[in-house]
Amino acid sequence: MSDDALTRLDHHYQSMPPVAAMQLRIAGFDGDRLRLHAPLSAHVNDKGCAFGGSLGSMMTLASWGLVTLRIEAAGLDADVYVADSQVRYLAPLFADLDVTAEADADADWEAFIATLRQRGRARIGLRAWAGLPEGGVATEFTARYVAIVRDPGHAAA
């Protein structure tokens, strides 16, 4: 994956005013996992820990970004939507928000891309989490994302 793809993703994130206000940045991408970071100071709640809505949003954005990067790497142009999601809050996070997203264990990127090419629409399951500085997980997220090719004639390419 090129640095250009990460730059485009970051510009897309920053073009959305609510996301720009989150002060998030891309912390890393290894082809399988996308990591985002945001300062606690922009997401602190009345208890002094990370706001639950911010954690849910960060995990939604990381998962969306991962799907977007994989589609772009396949040479496709598609809109990506979250179809459904579930968040579990396991422990308060009193540190910066560091979120990681990856495909579910039973997800298959090759099958997802093949279906997207063939049908112009595909779904894939993702999972994300916010880690605790001392180890462990503060918040878990599971979701299904849908991609729809913007130009169906381009899907067969």
Automatic annotation (TrEMBL):
This is YiiD C-terminal domain-containing protein. Gene3D superfamilies: Hotdog Thioesterase (3.10.129.10). It comes from the Bacteria. NCBIfam families: yiiD_Cterm. Residues 13-148 form the Thioesterase putative domain. SUPFAM superfamilies: Thioesterase/thiol ester dehydrase-isomerase.
